[in-house]
């Protein structure tokens, strides 16, 4: 049952405030980093690149990601209302009617998927459709049932750089799959950390995330192990000749830093919320800097 603040029902809202909430449905901060990974895949892929295809790829991806997030917020509006982190989102707070999120989530892909197919290629549009489907239909309901949802959610999260790659090459090959693997592995420590410092909130919402189900100690161990795994996976780009020595150096240093901090988690006691929050922020810095290195030292 969603509680709607009385003031929000009575007061008419400005079009700007409504527009801001519609944009918020698309989770713009997360979507921005997703788009950086798409741009990275496009930048590294071998073949012909041009501004028109790049613009179509980024605009189409932004619209499908926005739609995926709007549908996720539509489906989770009751759960979001139970959790501190999400209760002020436009739907649980009652600032937007759920039908708006549903219309945005179903409407945008009708425009963006055919546009991606026409202006990039069929492989890229099919990957976008797969990411949308796996995020909304598989991952979102699975969060309430199993901590393994993390591995399902990491699939749509890893598809955008592959879309950037296929927008140039039109096919799935080793280079694109290496970028997919990099993003897939990065999401594991990213979310294991979050699940620790937000454990109470997730439990309140009835979501069976890793730290809720397996406890803090196991989560810290897995966070350390998966951050170590990122080092060889990120270095795979070197033998595949996607990036040069400067990237290699950056990947080794950034990976060493992240895994080094991850390993200090093994000596923490209890929930170690401050450690987990710092580790989450480090995952964001790691990915941003790694893609900056790719920009400079990519093929
Ligand atoms: C299994 C996959 C993922 C899960 C479960 C997940 C979950 C989350 C959650 C719950 C937060 C909020 C943390 C907080 O409020 O303290 C967050 C933040 C963030 N995530 Fe992820 N994430 C995943 C994948 C990704 C991917 C693929 C990207 C982009 C490439 C990404 C980028 C971000 C960014 C930029 C933030 C900080 C901005 C914000 O809180 O809005 N995440 N993530
Ligand atoms: C092309 C395309 C559609 C790509 C998908 C990109 C995408 C939405 C990646 C995010 C992956 C993910 C599992 C985020 C967490 O959602 P959550 O539901 O756990 O987060 P929340 O609790 O903040 O709602």
From TrEMBL:
Gene3D superfamilies, sorted: UbiA prenyltransferase
Top-rank lineage group of the source organism: Bacteria
Keyword Methyltransferase set for record: no
A GO molecular-function descriptor: protoheme IX farnesyltransferase activity
InterPro entries, A to Z: Protohaem_IX_farnesylTrfase, UbiA_prenyltransferase, UbiA_sf
Pfam family for this entry, one: UbiA
Catalytic activity: heme b + (2E,6E)-farnesyl diphosphate + H2O = Fe(II)-heme o + diphosphate
Further information: Carbon 2 of the heme B porphyrin ring is defined according to the Fischer nomenclature.
Family to which the UniProt record says this protein belongs: Belongs to the UbiA prenyltransferase family. Protoheme IX farnesyltransferase subfamily.
Protein name in the entry: Protoheme IX farnesyltransferase
Upper lineage: Bacteria, Pseudomonadati, Myxococcota, Myxococcia, Myxococcales
């Amino acid at each position: 049952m969603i509680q709607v603040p009385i003031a929000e029902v009575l007061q008419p809202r400005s079009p700007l405030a409504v527009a801001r909430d519609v944009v918020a449905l698309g989770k713009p901060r997360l979507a921005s980093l997703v788009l950086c990974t798409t741009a990275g895949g496009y930048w590294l892929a071998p073949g012909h690149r041009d501004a028109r295809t790049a613009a179509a790829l980024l605009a189409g991806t932004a619209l499908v990601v926005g739609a995926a997030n709007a549908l996720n917020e539509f489906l989770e509006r009751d759960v979001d209302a139970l959790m501190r982190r999400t209760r002020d989102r436009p739907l649980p707070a009652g600032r937007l009617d759920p039908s708006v999120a549903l219309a945005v989530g179903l409407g945008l892909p009708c425009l963006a998927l055919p546009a991606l197919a026409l202006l990039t290629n069929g492989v890229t549009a099919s990957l976008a459709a797969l990411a949308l489907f796996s995020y909304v239909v598989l991952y979102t309901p699975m969060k309430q049932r199993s901590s393994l949802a993390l591995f399902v959610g990491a699939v749509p999260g890893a598809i955008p750089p592959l879309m950037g790659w296929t927008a140039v090459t039109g096919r799935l090959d080793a280079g694109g799959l290496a970028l997919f693997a990099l993003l897939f592995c990065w999401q594991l420590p990213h979310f294991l950390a979050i699940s620790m410092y937000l454990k109470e909130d997730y439990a309140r919402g009835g979501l069976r995330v890793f730290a809720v189900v397996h406890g803090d100690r196991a989560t810290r161990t897995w966070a350390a192990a998966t951050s170590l795994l990122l080092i060889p996976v990120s270095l795979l780009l070197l033998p595949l000749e996607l990036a040069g020595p400067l990237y290699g150096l950056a990947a080794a240093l950034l990976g060493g830093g992240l895994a080094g901090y991850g390993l200090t988690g093994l000596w923490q006691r209890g929930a170690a919320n401050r450690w987990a929050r710092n580790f989450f922020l480090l995952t964001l810095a790691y990915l941003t800097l790694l893609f900056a290195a790719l920009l400079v030292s990519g093929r």
